[in-house]
Write a structure and sequence with these properties.
The protein is mainly alpha-helical. Helix content is 51%, strand content 10%. Strands 1-2 form a two-stranded antiparallel ribbon. Helix 1 crosses helix 3. The chain is globular, with a radius of gyration of 12 Å.
């Protein structure tokens, strides 16, 4: 396992599933600019991360003993 930011994991997953930031923003009930700002700053609440993960099919877990550290897991899908 390697560590990446939540923003990097979200962007990678969006690319893997062919979803745009605009589509994700709409699904979250926000606008693309607000989501883009959060992605640039890598600044999400746990509730926001949970909602994003649910929409794009990621698993979010807290790591015991590491306050504030999140683990986001997914298996990369084949693009064919």
């Amino acid at each position: 396992m390697f560590l990446v930011s939540a923003s990097s994991a979200i962007r990678k997953r969006l690319d893997d599933i062919g979803m745009t930031q605009i589509q994700l923003a709409e699904a979250l009930g926000t606008n693309r600019q607000n989501l883009g700002n959060k992605l640039r700053r890598d600044n999400f609440s746990a509730r926001e991360l949970e909602a994003i993960c649910k929409i794009i099919g990621l698993k979010l877990a807290m790591v015991e003993g590491n306050p504030g550290e999140y683990v986001i897991e997914y298996t990369q899908e084949n693009k064919e």
